[in-house]
């Protein structure tokens, strides 16, 4: 007779019958298989990334890329002395991005954990460059401000709070979800460290009027002698526009665009933790922010908020660049756009929805809201019903001030969303609406459970 302990070791794992450790540091360890299965079983209950149409972040990479990642998880990116090739591959990626973004000459940039770190660093450089300009003129440096629209990601306000800069936020309006030069102009003065414009907003996927803002800044430079730099937050858009809208003007081809961030883990098509910051010219990076250290055996320049981090995602990014090239990225973006267009057409033809701004340059997504009067339920009800019935995660959210009475839904149509799935989603949305037509809106408590952000 085997004891129950032996039987468990032979046939099962401990957590079939025991709670998972969660409050105190475990006294005893467990077998590797037990630990692995404990985690796997816990994670099974999470959302299915394939049905997560809320996130901008990559949920699929091809097997060869996964292999590169798995085989390089042990490389510490910051250790340039030990891993100089990884560092060189980072610089190759920076040069390729600078080329993609039409940088006029030699440039500089770096990998980051994502666009948030890239924005913190880029905005810090704006602040430092502004300080240099002010100090050179013997003027005060205690009231810096940064101008951006209400359509930005939360990281911009975070930067302002963390690094003590006054945010000057241009409010949105009903039916106007991006900003342009006329909105920006009244907020600019000698203490403006820069203007941030978005290429592909998280809310509706559109771009601010970047050429218009660039022209405004050029005019101000010649009229008032104020050289205010423009930073483009291309977290999503900077990997979409070069391929879908190559004739659109938004990058270093515009003179006041001094720095650009992009998330490798969004439309760069790499798994999370990779972003990029690229400067127009070397002189756009404030030299004061670069630290030189030789802890790891060789003097090295670092411009980063973190220190140690994995090299695998840098390598995966390079893999994608050489694997896909311009024609590969163009193919993938167009395929997503085509399926997004089909979804938009389906939703419009259903008669229930209006689609927001799909006649404009946009990320491959569909932003939509109920058309006409559906007083018995709203977009949040549909999001909840759709998730409950079919497991699709399609967020509903209100737009930022002063468009906060507008509620919309947004579906990202990614690489893995096939035409067949588009048709299925269309049907599932229709079914969710039919359920709601019959029973009315969901309850507050039900709704609390699907309160999701606007995606990341
Ligand atoms: C996602 C996003 C960010 C933040 O990027 P992370 O890579 O998630 O840190 C910033 N700005 C915009 C416009 C975004 O879409």
TrEMBL record:
From the UniProt record, give one GO term of the biological process aspect.
Answer: L-glutamate catabolic process
Pfam families with a match to the protein in the record: Pyridoxal_deC
Molecular-function annotations in GO: aromatic-L-amino-acid decarboxylase activity; glutamate decarboxylase activity; pyridoxal phosphate binding
Q: Which EC number(s) does the record attach to this protein?
A: 4.1.1.15
Q: Does the keyword Manganese apply?
A: no
Q: Which UniProt keywords apply?
A: Decarboxylase, Lyase, Pyridoxal phosphate
- Record-stated family: Belongs to the group II decarboxylase family.
Protein name in the entry: Glutamate decarboxylase
Species: Nocardioides euryhalodurans
